[in-house]
Amino acid sequence: MGTAQLDFTAGSMQVNDPAYVAHLNTVEGSLWKAAPQDFFEGLSFDDARVMLGTQLSHISLHLNATLPDSAYGVADDEVPFEFDARKQWQQLIHPIRNQQRCGSCWAFSASEVLSDRVAIASGKPSPVLSPEDLVSCDKKDHGCGGGMLPAAWQYLTTTGIVTDACFPYSAGGGQAPTCATKCVDSESFVRTMADHAYAINGAANMQKDLMQNGPIQVGFLVYRSFMLYKKGIYHKHPKEPEEGGHAVKIVGWGVEGHGKFSKYWTVANSWDTTWGEDGFFRIVRGKDECGIESMGPPYAGMPKVALEEIVV
Length: 312
What we know:
By secondary structure, the protein is an alpha+beta fold. It has 7 helices and 11 strands. The strands form 3 sheets. Strands 1, 2, 5, 6, 7, 8 and 9 form a 7-stranded mixed sheet that branches.
């Protein structure tokens, strides 16, 4: 039976199904390559859907939470063709994480953006901040059951989060522990807070904000093929099943080749370094591919200059 006759829409199908991988790599005009992924080994698409824990909300519903254009000190014609936060702020962008079998992508990407921006604002390496704090303690979101970007940032501005060393991630099996009131190590129970948070409207402002302040958080709709992404510039293929919402951290952008889809975002995922391009992926930029420029909505915040200690 040829691959054209196979049904690749069943939820019970294994993510790493060899016939599906082969099919994805024969789609005409594709700018990316698929491969089996260790992160999804032994899982069906029904199983894997658990890791997609972001409730998406369109930017049009959050325009009152955006910054004025005057907040960006960069003109449109001053935006470079490529930008990489990992090069711009060397040693200050935190590493790829692994959310494991929990729908906590919303917490990972929010905590990673704040972690990076604390380091950038201070000009020196800073501790990784705790996604577990958001998963276990943010009662406006739903732990491993998912969350929303604006609600996560509301928590970061009103409560803040401790370091990863203080409250390590342990929800990877799908169950969040009780909210901590003291550190597992000997450090003081100190929360890092965002001073303010905001939505970002449009690809141009996303670029300007990233250049000016550091990585940003985005959400997008995952189509089935995305789970098998290995390299290249991702775009969904026709007639793919939707699997759910996912949240990630954009660290830059670039241009490759001269084709229709040559512009891309560079994005950090939370599916470990074995997935994709060492844990990162590139996705078509400027076309709102999979809703990545509108559906999170794109969000970020600025850290408070000093850490705020909360006595428990």
